[in-house]
Design brief:
mainly alpha, about 0% strand, Helix Hairpins, 2 domains, 6 helices, about 120 residues, about 65% helix
Length: about 120
């Protein structure tokens, strides 16, 4: 990725953001967008994830790298709200990615008992 899209990023940014999101669960919905999402409930959170996923796909389809980064950030944020709804954190997802590291996508699907991997097996190579 080009340097103009890759500013320095603290390694714990996801953990810190996850803590902020979790702290908004009991906050006043009139004072926090995240608290408002929690207050509206899981269906509203999931609707936002769907919207952001669609916007991410559209940005990628358009080949707009900056817009893609922006939309993926929105998608990650709203996905992290869903994680917090279920008392999960970014560390839980990172642990799962670490578990899959070096594991063939085909081997992982076999371990799950699936006959064959879908056309795109996701983050496992």
């Amino acid at each position: 990725m080009s340097q103009d899209l890759t500013p320095a990023c603290p390694p714990d940014v996801l953990a810190r953001l996850g803590q902020v999101i979790a702290s908004r669960r009991g906050a006043d919905p009139s004072e926090s967008y995240t608290a408002k999402l929690f207050h509206k409930g899981l269906d509203s959170i999931l609707k936002k994830i769907g919207e952001e996923a669609t916007e991410t796909v559209m940005a990628a389809k358009d080949g707009d790298r900056q817009k893609l980064v922006y939309e993926v950030a929105d998608l990650w944020f709203h996905s992290m709200v869903a994680l917090a709804h279920f008392d999960l954190s970014p560390a839980d997802v990172l642990a799962e990615l670490a578990r899959r590291e070096g594991l063939s996508g085909l081997a992982e699907f076999a371990a799950r008992g699936q006959a064959q991997a879908p056309a795109d097996s996701g983050p496992s190579a």
